[in-house]
Design goal:
Structural class: alpha+beta
Oligomer: single chain
Number of domains: 3
Pfam family, one: Ricin_B_lectin
Strand content: 35-45%
Number of helices: 9
Distance between the termini: 8 Å
CATH architecture of the largest domain: Distorted Sandwich
InterPro entries: Leukocidin/porin_MspA_sf, Ricin_B-like_lectins, Ricin_B_lectin
Organism: Elysia marginata
Largest sheet: 12 strands, mixed
Helix content: 10-25%
Shape: elongated
Keywords: Signal
CATH topology of the largest domain: Leukocidin-like
Protein name: Cytolysin
Length: 708
């Protein structure tokens, strides 16, 4: 896709300035350069590695930005060309988990090297000159890719130069990206998101930005008669190397299980969506406004005009390089000009197991459509068994019968709510289905949408947004004929909306399907194309009129390309989702003591670390199992000690959440001792409060995005 450009050398004087400033920066602690913009706010910029010229400028800019403007988040700057120590990796992981933005500076190395580092940090590798990374509240990474194109084609550069214009562009794009994330963080902090049930899918938002490229178009339109014309004088760049492309796209990776009770089929899905009406990005930008000029002028009745640049067409394609992968859905379909695209990509997803671990509050909002098999049929039996079991329990010698009766009556109600399979929060064993959807909404303006998706040796989703020059160019003229005294330009500005030159985001959604047993990785080529052109028109004398006679277009096609690699082995989401149990307002979690995992294991509290000895599964039978050994269940002993023992299905291994307390089937609530041991307590008012945290999905090497 075009020629590969060579790395540009840094001017010696700039390199010396960088070296001097870097040496000054390195006199500060490597991971704690504190740059306070206001005395009442303490915010740090962390630096890992020796800053590049870009890094120095960025740190200066961020340190001078007033925090009252809410334009920056806590950031960690990393020179991706430098070696990163293991301890620094741990620090970066902690910062990412605590709402810090990581800036990977790849201005001194290839974009592929940034991709490798990104994969090590987050499990997902993306190539870029500058890569911004943050994590959402559920620890799913989000990315902003910034690419600076330094050659005439739209190929990826090996490295970027330190020209002042390039630095200015990259700094602007970086601070702009930080500001957009700050704004979204501010909004989210003022509104509580709805509680979502567990889903066998993960969504990865990516912003792709290419900046500073040319748009070569025809220079001069020449006509010889009414039928013969040509373009001469080579090509020129009316964009002045300031064209840009910004796209927000979402990668959904979904694992569906075939179920007999629903219409869902088994399979693994990749879906890529751009919705222009909802965070679609800035789209393609050539110029703020096209311009008119005369390339030849003899008189108003004999002249040649030039107009541009405008986009003759845009195109997107996503092609599987694996013949076993099938195109499942590609929207929109063929759509005429000046239409409203409003369509939805829908996938019926099925899964078995536990749908949702109840929140530690009364809030619940779950839109999943659920269908149950044996759990529904047996709900009365389960409820009656729970009543019989609870009513037959023996009294504890240290508590009155009245107290225990009250506890049992309360627990009966919990079990009724917990086992009643008509309520989403009851976590029944069963078959669940829901519709995973993505909407695509936008106006096509003067572009017709042509769906060119096809099934072949490597299925392909493809669209062209085309002005259809041959069919409609005659309508773009100001006049067909005009009186001799006319001085109007050949092409009418009103025929070109901003979608033709200033802002257009192609909206689409494509879904590919792999078989449920697909294990080998698959690659997809994700291609974005624009064809900027100049329009030429000839005005000729025709007796008592001017005739707006010949017209033509001339330009170039530019292409951005990415290769996505999906490791289907990683796309194996299973319900229930592992979780950790954390003591309220403490950094202490339910923990299996090392070396004790056998027929009976000790359980205590230990500093939260999300390792597997702190991960648990809540089963459909109200058991809490260890991720390390699915045959070991949390158990309440007769002496109220809490241990990990072989699963036996008895009530002392049944558990339910009551707001922020964990209640055993015998009625005791989990609490702690002074030495961080766990025990049950009959008096819930004196028991401990807990929070559970879902363990983030394993995204390591799930998705890799390379530059073509």
């Amino acid at each position: 896709m075009g020629t590969q450009c060579k790395a540009l050398h840094k001017p010696p004087i700039i390199f010396f300035a960088k070296k001097l400033f870097t040496s000054l920066l390195l006199t500060l602690p490597t991971l704690g350069l504190s740059l306070n913009a206001e005395s009442d706010v303490n915010e740090s910029i962390h630096i890992i590695g020796s800053p590049t010229i870009y890094g120095i400028k960025l740190i200066e800019k961020l340190s001078k930005t007033p925090l009252s403007q809410r334009t920056t988040l806590p950031v960690t700057y990393i020179n991706a060309a430098d070696h990163i120590h293991t301890n620094d990796f741990n620090t970066i992981q902690d910062l990412l988990s605590n709402n810090t933005v990581i800036i990977l500076d790849g201005t001194e190395i290839t974009p592929d090297a940034v991709q490798t580092l990104s994969a090590k940090l987050t499990g997902i590798g993306l190539a870029a000159n500058i890569l911004l990374i943050r994590k959402s509240a559920d620890q799913i990474p989000e990315y902003k890719q910034i690419m600076l194109t330094e050659n005439q084609g739209l190929t990826e550069p090996i490295a970027v130069s330190y020209q002042e214009q390039n630095l200015s562009i990259m700094l602007h794009e970086t601070t702009k990206g930080l500001a957009s994330w700050q704004s979204s963080l501010y909004r989210s902090s003022h509104s509580k998101p709805p509680i979502q049930g567990w889903r066998p899918e993960v969504s990865i938002p990516v912003e792709l930005r290419h900046i500073g490229f040319s748009c070569l178009v025809g220079n001069q339109f020449v006509t010889h008669d009414y039928h013969n014309s040509e373009w001469t004088g080579g090509q020129l760049d009316p964009c002045n190397r300031q064209a840009s492309f910004s796209l927000f796209y979402t990668v959904d990776l979904i694992h569906s299980t075939a179920t007999h009770a629903t219409d869902s089929s088994g399979g693994k899905y990749l879906r890529i969506t751009v919705n222009p009406e909802f965070n679609g990005g800035g789209g393609w930008h050539l110029v703020n406004q096209p311009r008119h000029k005369h390339t030849w002028f003899e008189s108003w009745t004999n002249r040649t005009t030039w107009y541009g640049p405008i986009a003759s067409s845009y195109a997107v394609s996503i092609q599987s390089l694996d013949p076993d992968i099938r195109l499942y859905n590609a929207i929109p379909g063929n759509t005429p000009r000046h239409s409203k695209v409003s369509t939805i990509n829908k996938i019926a997803v099925g899964f078995k197991g536990v749908s949702h671990l109840p929140e530690t509050s009364n809030d619940f909002d779950d839109n999943a459509e659920s269908e149950y098999d044996t759990a529904t049929e047996n709900s009365d039996l389960l409820y009656n068994s729970a009543l019989d079991t609870l009513d037959s329990s023996d009294s504890d010698s240290d508590h009155s019968n009245n107290t225990q009766s009250a506890q049992r009556r309360s627990l009966n109600r919990k079990h009724l709510r917990f086992i009643d399979t008509t309520i989403p929060e009851t976590m029944p064993a069963g078959i669940f289905s829901y519709s995973s959807t993505r909407a695509v909404n936008y106006q096509t303006e003067e572009y017709a949408v042509i769906n060119q998706s096809k099934t072949s040796n490597g299925d392909k989703a493809a669209w062209i947004w085309d002005r259809q020059f041959d069919q409609y160019a005659k309508e773009w003229r100001t006049h067909s004929t005009c009186p001799l005294w006319c001085t109007d330009w050949f092409f009418d500005d009103a025929a070109f909306s901003p979608a033709a030159y200033a802002h257009f985001t192609p909206g689409f959604s494509a879904t590919f399907r792999a078989e449920e047993n697909q294990q080998t990785p698959s690659q997809f080529e994700f291609i974005h194309t624009i064809t900027p052109v100049a329009l030429g028109g000839r005005v000729k004398y025709d007796f008592f009129y001017q005739r707006y006679a010949n017209w033509s277009q001339n330009g170039s096609t530019y292409t951005f390309g990415q290769r996505l690699t999906i490791d289907w082995r990683k796309l194996n989401f299973q319900a229930p989702l592992p979780f950790t149990v954390q003591l309220a307002q403490k950094d202490l979690c339910l923990n299996i003591q090392e070396g004790t995992l056998n027929s009976t294991a000790s359980v205590n509290l230990y500093k939260c670390n999300t390792l597997q000895n702190q991960q648990w599964l809540f089963t459909a039978n109200q058991q809490i199992k260890s991720v390390l050994n699915h045959n070991m269940c949390l158990s309440l002993e007769d002496n109220l000690a809490i241990l990990l023992k072989s699963c036996n299905g008895t009530r002392n291994q049944h558990w339910a959440w009551d707001r922020s307390q964990l209640i055993n089937g015998n009625g005791a609530a989990v609490t702690t001792t002074d030495n961080h041991r766990l025990k049950g307590h009959w008096d819930h008012a004196l028991a401990a409060h807990w929070h559970y945290r879902n363990v983030p999905k394993d995204l390591k090497n799930l998705l890799t995005v390379e530059a073509l």
